[in-house]
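Proteins fold reproducibly. Take a sample protein:
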Amino acid sequence: MIREAISEEALSRAKEIIEDVRKGGAVAALEWSQRLDGLKPPELLIEPSERPEADSSVVEAALAAARSLERLYSRARPADVVDFYEGILRYIVWRPIERLAIYVPARYISTLVMLAVPAKIAGVSKLYALTPPKGLTPEFLTVAAKLGINAVVGVGGAHGLAYVAFHLGVDMLAGPGGLYVQAAKYVLSRYVGIDGIEGPTELVVYAEGVDPRRAVAGALAQLEHGPTSFAVVISRDYQLLREVEEIYRREKTSSMGPLSTKSVGSIEEAAREIDSIAPEHLEVWGLPELAQMVRNVGAVSVNGPSPLVDYVAGISHVLPTGGSARWRGIITPSTFMKPIGVAWTLADSPLRKHAIRLAEYEGFRLHADSLR
């Protein structure tokens, strides 16, 4: 299933803003903030610090999520590999990127956690957090300080991303955001790395032998993200699906995305259906073995609602959308690292003659000469 995350109109608008900020720097970024958000911060770069007026319960909840994430992700940092073969010492070493900017939609303090923790575990040395001016709450600045964010950029959108890309010299941009944020990431990917293009929220629920209200609760939670989000409930139980549809009709609002249902005849058919959708989120109720059968999915919640992943389960909620779960997965420390290969010749290798033959076959005479 192919789903568009950005539009031509958004790309055109993003290009205009990015070019203006590339030329105009901080002044242009602040002007776009005033124009698009109706306000701008007193300064563009803000040093995060603990604010006494911050709601301590919100701060503690965010830090509890960070501890949960750190416990799992500290074990997910990729390890170096060393091997000696035919006179050559080969190794692959993992190195963190140096400068990363993470995008945090306004008031999404959980997203700050979900990106900052794996970045710090990776070893990123300079970490910026961008958020629109209305996201600059005492809670956000306090949590940013505790997570080791070096500086907060107090504007969002394409203008904020362009500013950090061209004027702070970051190596990579990461994080979710709306249509224009993703369009800006796409445009800026010519100059810096990106984690991916994140589209609207997606959820598939497989339910069997559970209360239909439980099956639909997680779907309604994800559809709360807006009318472009969507959910699909799959089951072998036809009656359960009819009850899910009735609950959705009663509970839906005009700001919610659509929910559809799909009846399947077997667990294998359910797995194939899920893999064809390649959803961001999957909830599995009553049939835990299904979680081991699917290949194309971002994060799976078994016997629990997907918002558990959104907040405290210890898995980053920045997930592949738009069907991209077919080729990429969740955010981990390796997202913010790069593998470097090293070959150290310690003795004349018997492999050399094969290298010469391949070079000759491919028409690279000087390659072969250098090997001789």
